[in-house]
What we know:
By secondary structure, the protein is α/β, with parallel strands linked by helices. It has a single domain, classed as Rossmann fold. The chain contains six helices and seven strands. It has helices at 2-20, 59-70, 81-87, 102-108, 113-120, 203-220, and strands at residues 23-32, 43-48, 77-79, 122-146, 149-170, 175-199, 233-242. A seven-stranded mixed sheet has the order 3-2-4-5-6-1-7. Strand 4 (122-146) and strand 5 (149-170) form a beta hairpin. The protein is elongated, with a radius of gyration of 23 Å. Mean pLDDT is 81; it is low at 1-7 and 225-243.
Amino acid sequence: MHGLGFGSQWASGLAFVFLVSGCMQSRVDESRELHTRIQKNEAVVILAKPQVEGASAEDQFMHCVAAELQGRDGAITTRTDEQFTDALFPWFEPGTAPTKPEGVAALLTRPGVAERVAESGVRYVVWLDGGTQKTDGGGSLACGASPGVAGCIGFGWWEKEANYEATIWDLKQAKAAGSVGTNVTGTSAVIGALLPLPFIARVQATACNRMGTQLRTFFTGGDDEATPAPARASIAQAKTARK
């Protein structure tokens, strides 16, 4: 009877895993306020939006988005946050950075600041905000070892959400150019059948890909013909992917 009970639990867990594991939903939103077709001599820098409370966007995610934005062809030039903040020290440190794009105009009037910005080659600043967190989970997975045998039984699952927003500033015009947001949710699971079998939904990697791809479109002017500047455009894309 005990064996039948475990077999039924294992089968139920397996069915649950196949239904929900590796399944992700993603959404990308864009709002455009300015024409942003970047030139070859202009660069983009991605910075973590300063937070009064809590943690800002993770460094790993920022670097991932920068790599996706730049692309293998290097069509868009990027600067690292360290390069830019060091070159503009102390004006873009968390405690002294402008809180609004209009504040850039006042900043550029300070002695030497405009020259430093020009030397950096940065035209657009992308302020990145958000994070990835576990939102739900359940099940039970037990692993152990004894002489001659080791393994896991049961199953566990968890859901994660990656939610990020990028606000783009045009340093040349000292104005907000627009924003790009991405939200990805996914359910992962591990089933114990002697060896643990993981089914992982990589929500943060997917959010990075979606964000980087949409930012590339934003800076290469892919939507400009349909949405002339300075009109505001909103684009929402909903996709469901199963791995």
